[in-house]
Amino acid sequence: MTNSRPNEFIPPPECPVFEPSWEEFADPFGFINKIRPIAENTGICKIRPPPGWQPPFACDVDRLHFTPRIQRLNELEAQTRVKLNFLDQIAKFWELQGCTLKIPHVERKTLDLYVLYKLVNEEGGFDVVCKERRWTQIALRMGFAPGKAVGSHLRAHYERILYPYYLFQAGANLMNSQKPTLTNDTKDKEYKSHDLPQRQSVQPAETCTIARRAKRTEVGRCFKSEQGEVCENKPNLRRRMGSCVAKTEPVKEIPVQVKQEPVEPTAEGEKSKVEQYMCLACGGGGDEDRLLLCDGCDDSYHTFCLIPPLHDVPKGDWRCPKCLAQECGKPQVAFGFEQASRDYTLRTFGDMADSFKSDYFNMPVHMVPTELVEKEFWRLVSTIEEDVTVEYGADIASKDFGSGFPVKNGTFKVAPEEEAYLSSGWNLNNMPVLDASVLTHVTADICGMKLPWLYVGMCFSSFCWHIEDHWSYSINYLHWGEPKTWYGAPGYAAEQLENVMKNLAPELFESQPDLLHQLVTIMNPNVLMDHGLPIYRTNQCAGEFVITFPRAYHSGFNQGFNFAEAVNFCTADWMPLGRQCIDHYRSLNRYCVFSHDEMTCNIAAKADSLELELASAVQKDMSTMIQEEKELREQAYKMGLWHSQQVDYDVLPDEERQCAKCRTTCYLSAITCPCSPDQLVCLHHIQDLCACPVSSYTLNYKYTLSELNPLFQAVASRAESYDDWASKVNEILKANQDNKSDLEELRSLIVEAEKKMYPETDLLNHLRQIIQNAERSASMAQQLLNGKRQTRYRSGGGKSPNQLTVEELKLFVNQLYELPCTIRQAPFLKALLSRVEQFQQQSSDLLAEDMPGSSAIQGLLDEGASLDVELPQLAVLRQRLEQARWVEAVQQASEQPASLSLDCMRRLIDQGVGLVPHACVERTMARLQELLTVCEHWEEKAHNMLTARPHHSIDTLEAAIQEVDNIPAFLPNCVQLKDCVNRAKEWIKEADAVGGRIPFLSTLSELVSRARGIPVMLEPLTRLESLVSEVQAWKESAAKTFLLRNSSHSLLEVLCPRCETGPQKSRSKKVKDVSLPCKKVDVKLDSLFDVERVLSTSKDTASAMATLADVRQKELESLSILRTSNEANFQSLPSCLAPTVCLCHTVPAGPMLQCELCRDAYHSGCVPGFKDIQAGQPWLCPLCKRSEKPPLDKVLPLLASLQRIRVRLPEGDALRYVIERTVRWQHSVQQISLPTQHPNGKARHISGIASSQILEGSKGSYYMLQPCIPLGDLSAELEELLVEGLLLQVNLPELQHLYSSLLNRFTPSQHSLQSSEHDHQYHIAQDRSPPHRSPPHSKGQDGVLETKKEKVEKNSKRRLEKENLEGHYRDKIKKPKKKKPKMNKERRREEKRTISPSNSLSDPSYSEDSEEDWSVCSAKRCQQPEGNEVNWVQCDGSCNQWFHQICVGVSAEQAENEDYICVSCAINDLTE
Hints:
There is one protein chain. By secondary structure, the chain is of the alpha+beta class. Helix 20 packs antiparallel against helix 21 and helix 33 crosses helix 34. The chain starts with 16 loop residues before the first strand and ends with a helix.
């Protein structure tokens, strides 16, 4: 071993090899029991049958076919698999960042990145290693020669490859780690395995699937980089400005596209695309050439915002930190063997196996030394540079294709001279069911345990470290072929082996805790031996047996093509280990192959025919079983279980009686519940069955405890004899002082003799006499021990009749130790004597102290009271105990100021007055009285501060609190004072926070309410109270502006869009079957309460506006359905189907009014004030008219005043939305074009609408007092615009203009009889009407109304521009220093009379003089003023257009002295 290379495999020592004679070989279990003391110390052993024992090979070769398992050798070894997993993670980490992992070479060998990573972490991390310059030590630990500056290379490789991964795993804010280019040295090789083509010529093909694994990075580790596709689909983002060469030919589109947008050919188009992306780190969208786009989630980052910043754009795919964490954080899949894709026969598998081995070693199969194969195997499983894949035909059931041994009644015909092999105990079909085998009593045929399994191996195919099921024995016979190499560890080292493997490869056990039960992991025996594990090996040749002992871990591999057969067996010595294994399986929640209890009961049922050794083992096992079952059932009964029933578990399959928790096969008993009758648990897991009470559970039992006793008695009577009993008694009676048995053991011998009805002998009588003497002494001793417990509660300190002196106690103890058996009480009495002597010494020492602790005195008193001996020191100790307790009570109260109140101090003083005088007590009393005086003074002072008027300032109170903090006592008034100061500080902090942002009214009100309960002077309170008062005053002003007199609606209800448009149940029924196409919202907005709640909790005004927009959409959709439903009621219907209308819910009759908004009809007599209705104006029913609808010039000051107050409230957000909604509606009205008349020049007649037409109802005729605009003739755009205008809670002249236009367009000819003044207003409202067709102005009433409406419109726009945009837009808009009024020429007026304003605005070539193109008024509804002098005003906003002063409602003085901003500029700035 001294000449071997450092990494070369060193074979472990050989296991024992036995060669039995024919006589020994005739009894298999007898021979195994004979060699067990030797072989179980090595875990495995090999047995060579006597010469000439050669059973025929009985397996049907032609019929045998199987699908083998695929084994990749370096993935079998635990530590190598950990390294491969680590390298896979590193490769994936860099792949997601657009780089390919290349493993560097240092000193002409591949650098072990895993070891480097672990060593740096063990040394404290990269920063610590660099700071303390430990790279040289790490290089030495990795095996590099000193003095070659290898440490600097290791540092560079670690920093380049591993350090970014370490930061990523540590959870640092590593936006992209190191440079994603991952620059590698030219000598570095990609993450590949080094193939050995000269040593292996068998390539994967259809006829031969077994061969070397492909290079690790040639297929699947070289990552495809599709740069061209990324560049073309995301120009100017993924590869910026020259960083990516565009392809001339079209590229196939990537299946997953984050952004589906075309490539713009110009730079301006690219710029608009880039502006859609913002850096998630800084939030900016600038520096587009440095924006980097993630190929996974499409998030973008600046290269200089990453940590650390990137200097260049990565060449491959790049992932952001979120995608990187998601991909690398996926859990690993549990490791397991794959099944081959091909089915083999024995012949084809052999051809493949022999070809593989001969090609691999380049020599004939039989000439390859076993030592060479062994060393090559362990080299391959430990390397990451070579991947070798083999196949193993394991666990082939013999019952399907026949065993290799001949069996009775089998298809294989045995020659007469070979019939002895049919019944041989070494025939693996017979061994599990021999009489001495325990498994013969298992009724089920278990493959692999009772029925052999077949194994077809090839070179390097292996079986990993494992132990047999139920920790049983196993025996393996190699029928023919090349050897099988075994490694084993003794059973006592099983837990040590498990711990070593878990410590060496913890990563595997973290992801797969039951790894050792999966038979998929192997570890180098040399590594295990280095950790102190005893490992042994052997080469099993054809015709040899290998036996593994209970709980002995074993593994190995095949030297070449061979055929083996294995089975399990259990002997009597296995019984206690089998029960121990069941408990172990239960702790692991692992299933059992068979029921151990069932097997034990089956053996006990045949007690008369059992051998004494097996009977003895079964007796012990059954005793343990019954005792455990008894305790579990008693525990179940105590939990409340009382239902029970007997169940025959013999007839149920194992899978139907497995515990749902631990998967143990139940036999003696199980628990079920009616809620899940198909599920059961064992008695160990009653609480894991279900959530039902235990009283509803049912105990299902196979046997009662009384039924188990006869089985146990039968086994016990078979196992035991009188001779054993007599020899045991003699040994006990003759034992010396150190080996004496206790009294309970002597009693058990008497009980045993009586149960077995042994004859009355002198030995039995002598044993009874000894027991009687011992029981009397034990009784006296027990009385003494019991007496000590009663002495505590006796009053007085006098001597009790039960108390002994110290001398009497000594004599009794000596008498106990002279008995031939041990008395359980004897050690206690001897200890009592020692305690008495110790008590006397401790009492003297304690009383000599000044003031000992009460616990020490009490402990000594308890000790003396428990001794039940006369002790004069007890009286003095009781007196000293009272003094010590009082002193400690004072000290404890002082140490806990929170509980030391004035009453507590007074009570302690009263208690100390009655104590016996002592120096320590007097000193403590003086300190306590002084503290009481100080506390009473400060309590009174704190009370005065709390009740002072006016309140004190915080500084004054804090100064007082600082003095109080030094007083070690609980003062309620001072605590209250401190609490008030803390509340005041917290209140001031919240009040200051309110000043930094716009608060809600509810927040302010809550602060003011809390401040009034704090008896401290708070400076911000006055300001907050004033602010709340201003908000309340604003709400009152807004209510007066909007609410109708005696209105039942609140201000918020009026300002918000309506949540429910159908106020009556009858209306909801009309649209019951109509599906509402309501838009889904994230928050429920079905009532005003919901809207108010959402507005109150909104973060900002934008979210509040979005909420109100959702409510508006719902209002429009619901109202549309209601209008359609109500309008349908007035179609031509039979008289019997006349609808019910109005507030009175009756049929239409007489003069009726129809609401222009909801289209419902009302009796004129039911509507108050119907005579005040003006012709040509829309009429709204009492349900639709919710407010006064003030003009806009009255609403805008309300919003401006609220903005000055800087307090948010739902009504304010609703008012802002009303104004925004109004402005948007005005803008929409300006965009439409309304024809003034039907194309045929005549107004169309709409039946059912004109006031002159009489309709027939169910009870009479009715007619409409005022016409409504028909729905059928309106376009969707006009109807939506009209409904939106009617819903506005602001009075707008544009609405009147729109309504008049639509009414003149769709009403019948009879309506044209109205006054000419109204027609004149209609023509004025139309911008595109020719001037020569307009009738002259009239001074009638309608003309006055029109003039007022225009004035209101102009004033409202003017105020919107002046109040809302005054402070904000003046900084943004460049204003001229002075504007001069402009006078238009007479020639321009003549041209305007013949040419429409729309043409003059749309055609720039209209003007004859290019210098006077600005002389055209830009107002949407220019009034075309005429006269000798027309005044103009220019917009100070961004458009700089000119307007007639009269068209925009600006006087000459205002145009000269104030800034003017037009409606278009105001709307644009408001929306921005």
